[in-house]
Amino acid sequence: MTSLDKSRPPAAKASTKTAAADGNQRLSQSERAYQELKRRILDNEMPAGFQALEQELAELLGMSRTPVREALIRLAK
Predict the structure, then answer these.
(1) Residues 6+ apart with CB under 8 A from 35
(2) Is the whole-model pTM more than 0.90?
(3) Which of 13, 16, 19, 74 is the most buried (most CB within 10 A)?
(4) CATH assignment of 26-76, given 3.30.60, 3.30.70, 1.10.10, 1.20.1070?
(5) Segments making up each domain of the chain, as ranges
(6) Helix H segments across 1-77?
């Protein structure tokens, strides 16, 4: 199992919803997890074959496992 990069600070903890980049639209935790994980994959921070536990990803993103699980399901499609 590949360990996560601890040099990058975790995402800021937020309430159930977080302001989007444009400041008008609100994102759910699941959407925020999806976008952050997708960004890290595309930036090769999580390369092909990367493995991590759901709990590790949740801690990295500063949120519970449920939105991370939902994001992983979307990414797998």
Answers:
(1) 27
(2) no
(3) 74
(4) 1.10.10
(5) 26-76
(6) 29-42, 54-61, 65-76
State the amino acid at position 46 in one-letter form: M
Tokens at residue 2, please?
A: 């590949």
Token pair 């921070």 is found at 45
By residue count, the chain amounts to 77
User: b/e map of 13-35 (b: 16 or more CB within 10 Å)?
Assistant: eeeeebeeeeeeeebebbbbbbe
Candidates 76, 72, 35, 74; CA nearest to 57 is 72
